[in-house]
Amino acid sequence: MTSTSQTAAADGADTPGPDGAGLSSTRVAKEADLAGRSPGQLMWMRFKRDRTGVVSACIVLAFFLIAALAPLISKLYGKDPYTRYGQLRPDLLNENFYPVKPNGGIDGEFWFGLEPGLGRDVFTQLLYGIRNSLALAVIITLLSVLTAIVIGVAGGYFGGKVDYFLGRFTDLMMSFPNQLFFVAFTPVVAALLVDPRDEMPTWLRAGVLVYVMWLLGWMTLARLLRGQTLSLREREFIEAARVAGTPSGRIVRKELLPNLVTPILVQATYMLPNNVTAIAGLSFLGVGLLEPTPDWGRMFAKGAEIYQSDITYMFFPGGAMVIFILAFNLLGDSVRDAFDPKSGR
Amino acid sequence: MRARRDRVVGGAATPYGISQAATDNRQAGADTTMSRVSIRTARASLAALAAGALFLTGCSSGGGGDDTKKDEKAKQQGQDVSYTFADEAASKGPAPEVKGGRKGGTIKVLQRDSFAHLDPAQIYVSDEGALAELIHRGLTTYKKVSDDKYEVVGDLATNSGTKSDGGKTWTYKLKDGIKFEDGSAITSKDIRHSIERTFAPFVTEGPTFIQQWLADTGGTDYRKMLKDGPYKGKHLPDDVLETPDDKTIIFHFKKPQAELPYALAMAGYSVVSEKKDTKEKYDKKPLCSGPYKIASFKSGKSMKLVRNSEWDPKTDPARHQYPDAFNIQFGVSFEDSTKRLMSDAGENQTATSFTNQVDASSLQKVRTDPEIKKRTVGGFQSYVSYLNINMDRIKNKKVRQAIAYAIPNQSIVSAFGGAGGGEMAGNYISPTLVGHKKTDPFNKLKNPQGDVEKAAKLLKESGKKGMKLTFAYQNAPEWQQFAVAATQNLEKAGFDVQKKDIIADTYYDQIGKVKNGYDIYHNSWGADWPSASTVVPNLFDGRQIQDGAANYSHHKNPKFEKEMDRIRSMSDANKAADEWQKLADKILTEDVPAVPMHYYKAMQISGSKIGGMYFDERLHDINPTSLYVKK
């Protein structure tokens, strides 16, 4: 890695114009050949130089880390998101069931204060809320991306009737309104699968949420990938592979997919925060995860309800959400820039 | 009277529930119904009318101070409110001047729901009840004498009623100078007509007490007595309703009906002109008899009330005519009206609301900001929330006791906004009712968060540990919040709780089915007048179990039914009131058909230029007739 500074300088010099950038990056590539750098490594190097990107990545990572370690953190912190501290202990809430202490009851014991009414701990609620929302969003994003790859690439690669059929199917799915569909769909599932005497289990509710958002979330990426595949399929290296008798599956895996990594990754980094907000939106409307499962979106709903009397409560879930979405979107931009320095700017 | 409240929902029991829900297009068709039953003359003390009573000075909107301290003080002193049936002297007009009251100005009124009915016979919900105070008059009405004292006075009648024959016969004489807005005199023929037309098929929404008493039947059988009402020339026979001359009305009942003056004070029995009665159309354009008349009404949008020049203050012991007009605007949610009135800007300074309350989420701000707080009034409503236990499904008494011990009553109060929204209940009888005692058989007041250990022990003894318990609740913020707390406690006690949230609009239809399939579910119920006779039998009489009836627990016990009949036929009001309380406690401890949870309280707010605001315990709202516009 002795040539880092050299390449950095070289790369730094190629920012002025797209043409220059293209030229110099081939030059860099030549130089890099000596050091044995793959396109991935190049991307990584470019990414590392983008300070916004790195900071955003750290924030996003921190969120995921917090989400993953929520049970551990809550154990160390000594509180859980379910216990009604404010109701069980008479000194915490006043007669209107708002925190006695200023700023939403923030103190050394309850770092983010207490939830008015039920008196639960805001910090652990938020931890678990983030955990649940992120887990759902990640699952939905993964499923959507996989579906988009299968349908988009199949449509683009095979063309003809397959493409026509898949294309119309994509259009059809796009015409469903996401949130309304979910609102209408959940009771149907509940009626079909749940005994009328029983509560809909949380895992089933989460399952329905994932299912609906996945079902209605893959179309944009699929269309994009179809277009990309369509143009890639005519390129020489694919033709060559075909002529050489390579099976379709192998062509897709070894020739097409590596060239589609960029749009997939970039789109996924946009899709994930979108899913987080969509889940929060459903919860805000009261049709997402239900009490007592901690939920990020529902915290907004509560915050919006009580903002006049306890603005602090809104601050934490709101702030966390803004930071997370902003960081993730900036990360998405940086990833795109790193993969493809010609585009953007 | 059924009140329509945001989110809160009362029992839409009785046939009225359905149409009620239909008129309520916004969230949660909240109403609490009440009911009928027997009677007694009354001079009774309402225990602990606490909070509100103290700053109900009836003269100005001032009087802030520290509510907490006042609450405590009221509780300690056991502030009583009493109701008396008044004589002629007290029934004479004019009403005593409101301190500082001045004529002129226009009051803006923000209301959530439009008035569905203007015909007195169709009025039962509290929104229209408040309006009726201004435009309709009946034989009797209530008059606030002092902070803790109400009188039932003669309104159109010279007194609250003269009873004879052991309470089976009631005689009313009309005052002189009482007129409709068109200048025609109100005679006994109009009163007779007003009663008779409630038998007509098109009158479906109003109260049915007096009809049932006259016919001595239950349900809707009274309609057979006068199938088409008075419209086809038939009248009630003289041995039922007699009008010997233009000024006299005599009611003849088969059984003693000591609570008639209360019943006649309901807006539903206000006077309707015999000559100008337009039947169904009267509901859109009634002939007013109160201090105000309707200048214009755009359903769902606005209504304008102006002075009724034919109304003579000398005939009216309870109403005033201060502002020139009321401009009522509909479609303003509780949140919106609270925010607008809190801001106190521009026209909001002279604005108020008859029935919109301070919404639960604003209570903290309203109760802690002294400038805003002094513009509020509040007090108990007659509604009580119960957690019904379905006795068809849960037959083991120990299990029911376990549920009763586990429920955290404090959590329901907190869900309704804390001390301003309610108070924990120890028994079934509301503190606004005559005879209420602060009994607490399940230690609900001592253990605000429930006694989970005792519940667990009882459940273990019953051998049903881990049993499935389907808990139905209304899908509204308050009940959701309560459900979280209740479920936690019940699960700790060893139940396998299955929460079922039910859409607010259809909640009462769902739990009203006898075969509803749920184990526990909440309902709210309030009395029509300050007597437990309109509560206990409705909720716990096993003979009244049917789809849509208020006995949601399906409680059946012949022993207690006999007792109800006995108390109903008692002639001493105070004794009967005590007996109702005792019976209610007996039912609670012996059968545990429902867990009493909380007594509703309400808080209302006005703009800074509104004077004369006080909380009327029996309307459970601001009394609109004493309002005036300050200079």
Write down the oligomeric state.
heterodimer
On the 0-100 scale, what is the average pLDDT of chain A?
82
Major β-sheet annotation of chain A:
none
Write out the CATH superfamily name of the largest domain in chain A.
MetI-like
Total strands of chain A: 0
- Uncertain runs of chain A with pLDDT below 50, 5 residues or more? 1-27
Structural class of chain B: alpha+beta
Looking at CATH, the homologous superfamily of the largest domain in chain B is: Periplasmic binding protein-like II
> If helices are DSSP runs of H or I spanning 4 or more residues, what is the number of helices of chain A?
16
CATH topology call of the largest domain in chain A: MetI-like fold
Tell me the CATH architecture of the largest domain in chain B. 3-Layer(aba) Sandwich
- Indicate the CATH topology of the largest domain in chain B: D-Maltodextrin-Binding Protein, domain 2
Number of domains of chain B: 2
How would you classify the helix and strand content of chain A by structural class? mainly alpha
CATH architecture of the largest domain in chain A: Orthogonal Bundle
Distance between the termini of chain A: 29 Å
Percent helix range of chain A:
over 70%
CATH class of the largest domain in chain B: Alpha Beta
Helix and strand arrangement:
The complex is a heterodimer of chains A (345) and B (631).
Chain A: H1 4-13, H2 18-35, H3 39-49, H4 51-68, H5 70-77, H6 85-88, H7 102-105, H8 122-158, H9 160-174, H10 178-193, H11 202-215, H12 219-233, H13 236-243, H14 248-284, H15 296-306, H16 311-339
Helix pairs in contact in A: 1-2, 3-16, 4-8, 4-16, 5-8, 8-9, 8-11, 8-12, 8-14, 9-12, 10-11, 12-14, 13-14, 14-15, 14-16, 15-16
Chain B: E1 3-4, H1 16-23, E2 31-32, E3 43-46, H2 50-55, H3 67-77, E4 81-85, H4 88-91, E5 106-110, H5 126-135, E6 140-146, E7 149-154, E8 162-164, E9 169-173, H6 188-196, H7 209-215, E10 241-242, E11 248-252, H8 260-264, E12 292-298, E13 302-307, E14 325-329, H9 334-343, E15 351-352, H10 363-368, H11 370-373, E16 376-389, H12 397-406, H13 409-415, E17 422-424, H14 452-462, E18 468-474, H15 477-493, E19 496-502, H16 507-512, E20 520-525, H17 536-540, H18 558-568, H19 573-591, E21 594-605, E22 610-611, E23 615-616, E24 621-622, E25 628-629
Parallel strand pairs in B: 4-7, 5-14, 5-15, 18-19, 18-20
Antiparallel strand pairs in B: 1-2, 3-4, 6-7, 8-9, 9-11, 10-11, 12-13, 13-14, 16-20, 16-21, 17-21, 22-25, 23-24
